[in-house]
Design a protein that fits this description.
The chain is an all-alpha fold. 76% of the residues lie in helices and 0% in strands. Helix 3 (40-53) runs antiparallel to helix 4 and helix 6 (121-140) packs antiparallel against helix 7. The longest helix is centred in the middle third of the chain and has 25 residues, at 56-80. The termini are far apart. The mean pLDDT is 86.
């Protein structure tokens, strides 16, 4: 079976998966699991696999986009300081400010960046379905308002397109790309720390 068909099957399974939660009477439990599709550590791990198993250039660009989205998310949260819905309504644990949604930012950044680089319909489909499920999960679990999720999607799109257009004419030797990525990682860490301070 071709990779294309596998990705399409995964996209369809993710798209119909809410029905399974509904039919099994585990609606909230389903969304608690589905929201993990927006967790940053999972996408970092996936990006590392892409770097080693698929294409180092693709892995580096996606990782730069994820790092950019992450620090911009922290910066925006601390700039606007908008609250989440009342904690008594939460159906899953959450912390920090509400706008923008980090899960929406992370999933949008990863899938948009990957789609821009891969230029394959099945990647677009899988990305769109995954981002939709993540965004819905944050609203259904009452840990974000719709505007938080919309803000995360816009921020993810901005991060992805910015990095894509900034890096597409740059070609570096592998050791120089690794050094540049390490320096960018340090810069992002400092920016994130500074943005997170009161």
């Amino acid at each position: 079976m071709k990779t294309k068909h596998i990705l399409i099957i995964i996209a369809v399974l993710i798209a119909v998966s809410p029905l399974l939660g509904l039919l099994l009477g585990k609606w909230v439990d389903y969304w608690r699991i589905a929201t993990n599709l927006g967790d940053e550590p999972a996408y970092i791990a996936l990006t590392i696999l892409i770097f080693y198993l698929v294409d180092p250039h693709l892995g580096v660009n996606v990782l730069i986009a994820l790092s950019t989205g992450a620090w911009l998310d922290v910066f925006m949260k601390n700039l606007f300081k908008l609250p989440r819905p009342p904690s008594e309504l939460w159906l899953a644990p959450a912390e920090g400010y509400g706008f923008p949604s980090g899960h929406a930012t992370t999933s949008t950044t990863f899938w948009t960046s990957l789609s821009l680089e891969a230029r394959r319909r099945e990647v677009y489909l899988l990305g769109a379905v995954t981002v939709a499920i993540v965004c819905l999960s944050r609203i259904i679990l009452n840990v974000h308002y719709p505007v938080d999720v919309a803000g995360g999607v816009v921020l993810g799109l901005f991060s992805s397109f910015s990095v894509y257009y900034a890096t597409r004419k740059i070609t570096l030797k592998p050791w120089l790309a690794s050094l540049a990525l390490a320096l960018y990682g340090v810069a992002v860490s400092v920016l994130t720390f500074c943005a997170g301070r009161p």
